C-alpha cells in the first residue's frame, strides 16, 4: 500500500532543546494512527513539521511523496490544530462556505452538518460568540470541508463535552470506514486504544513504541514486584535476569518490572535480601503508561 506520510530522521531544536529527536516512521493509506504521549512529548511539533507549517532542524517530512506546502497536496489534507482560530465577525455558515470554496470537490453544507453535529443555530452565530466546544466543532467542519483523503487532528477532544466527543469519534470512524487516512494526537491512552489501529507512542521527543494497540498494551502492562529495601541493593542484582525489563526506585520502593513475578520472588528469597513490604502488582494500563512516560526517577 501507498505511504501517505513518510518522515525521516525528523528533528526540531528550539533554543538548544530537542522537541523532536530523530524520529522516522511512515503511515500507509487507510491507517488510523494515534500519536500518543504526555504533554511536551513533541506531538504537535511533529504534526506541524508533517504539515509543512514548521521547518525541521534536520530530516524531512513528506506527504503523498511531496512537501505538504504544495497546493496540490494541501487540497488533499484536512487539519484541525490544537488552537482553533477563526476569523471574527463572520457567521459560522459564512466561514464554512468560504473554506468550501477553496477546494475543487468540497463536501456539501448538509454533509458537513451531518458529520459534525453543528446545529442551524450554530450556523447563524458569529464566530466570536462561540464557546470553546463550538469552536472545535467548527474547526472540525473546516477540516472536512474539502473532503480530504488525509486528516490531521491535534488533541481534538480537549475542551469537548461528552456528547461532542461521541459525535466526533463516531464521525472519525465513519471517515476511517471510507478509507481515509487519519492521524490524531492525544494524551489519553484510552482514546488511542479505542480508535486507532496503530499507536505511535512519543516521550521526550522520541518514539518509544510503535504498533497495534494490543501490542503496545502488552508492552506497557508489565507486572512488578516491589519492596522496601533495608540495605543497598544494586540494580544489577535483578536487571540481569532475562525476564526482568527494568528496575527502578520510586517513592522509597524498589520496583522490579517483569513478566514473571514468581521468578523474581524466588530470586528475592534465594538471595536472602533484607526487604519488607513485598507487593506484587499486575500491571494496570494507565499506571504503566505513566511509568513509561514519567519524568523523574530517583537514583538507586
Ligand atoms: N515554538 C516553540 N518554542 C520553544 N519551545 C517549544 C515551541 N514549541 C514547542 N516547544 C517545546 O517543545 C517541546 C514539545 O512540544 P509539543 O510538540 O508542543 O509537545 P506536545 O504537543 O506533545 O504536548 C516542549 O518542551 C515545548 O515546550
Ligand atoms: Mg500538543
From TrEMBL:
Q: Which GO-annotated molecular functions does the record name?
A: ATP binding; ATP hydrolysis activity
> Does the keyword Transcription belong to this entry?
no
Question: Has keyword Cell cycle?
Answer: no
Keywords associated with the record = ATP-binding, Nucleotide-binding, Transport
Looking at the record, the residues that make up the ABC transporter domain are: 5-229
Q: Which InterPro entries match?
A: AAA+_ATPase, ABC_transporter-like_ATP-bd, ABC_transporter-like_CS, ABC_transporter_ATP-binding, P-loop_NTPase
PANTHER family linked to this entry: ABC TRANSPORTER ATP-BINDING PROTEIN
The protein depicted here goes by the name ABC transporter ATP-binding protein
Q: Which organism is it from?
A: Lederbergia citrea
Amino acid at each position: 500500500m501507498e505511504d501517505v506520510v513518510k518522515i525521516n530522521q525528523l528533528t526540531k531544536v528550539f533554543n538548544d532543546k530537542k522537541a523532536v529527536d530523530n524520529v522516522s516512521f511512515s503511515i500507509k493509506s487507510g491507517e488510523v494512527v494515534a500519536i500518543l504521549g504526555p504533554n511536551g512529548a513533541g506531538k504537535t511539533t511533529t504534526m506541524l513539521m508533517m504539515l509543512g507549517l514548521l521547518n525541521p532542524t534536520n530530516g524531512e517530512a513528506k506527504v503523498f511523496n511531496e512537501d505538504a506546502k504544495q497546493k496540490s497536496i494541501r487540497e488533499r489534507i484536512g487539519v484541525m490544530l490544537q488552537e482553533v482560530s477563526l476569523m471574527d465577525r463572520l457567521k459560522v455558515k459564512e466561514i464554512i462556505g468560504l473554506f468550501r470554496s477553496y477546494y475543487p470537490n468540497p463536501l456539501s453544507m448538509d454533509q458537513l452538518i451531518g458529520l459534525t453535529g453543528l446545529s442551524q443555530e450554530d450556523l447563524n452565530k458569529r464566530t466570536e460568540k462561540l464557546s470553546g466546544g463550538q469552536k472545535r466543532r467548527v474547526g472540525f467542519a473546516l477540516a472536512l470541508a474539502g473532503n480530504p483523503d488525509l486528516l490531521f487532528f491535534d488533541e481534538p477532544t480537549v475542551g469537548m463535552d461528552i456528547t461532542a466527543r461521541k459525535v466526533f469519534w463516531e464521525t472519525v470512524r465513519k471517515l476511517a470506514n471510507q478509507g481515509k487516512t487519519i492521524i490524531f494526537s492525544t494524551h489519553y491512552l484510552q482514546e488511542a486504544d479505542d480508535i486507532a489501529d496503530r499507536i505511535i507512542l512519543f516521550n521526550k521527543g522520541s518514539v518509544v513504541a510503535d504498533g497495534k494497540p494490543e501490542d503496545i498494551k502488552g508492552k506497557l502492562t508489565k507486572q512488578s514486584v516491589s519492596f522496601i529495601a533495608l540495605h543497598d541493593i544494586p540494580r544489577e542484582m535483578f536487571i540481569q535476569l532475562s525476564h526482568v525489563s527494568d528496575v527502578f526506585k520510586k517513592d522509597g520502593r524498589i520496583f522490579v518490572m517483569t513478566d514473571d513475578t514468581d521468578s523474581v520472588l524466588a530470586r528475592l528469597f534465594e538471595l536472602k535480601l533484607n526487604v519488607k513490604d513485598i507487593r506484587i502488582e499486575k500491571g494496570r494500563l494507565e499506571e504503566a503508561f505513566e511509568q513509561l512516560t514519567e519524568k523523574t526517577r530517583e537514583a538507586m
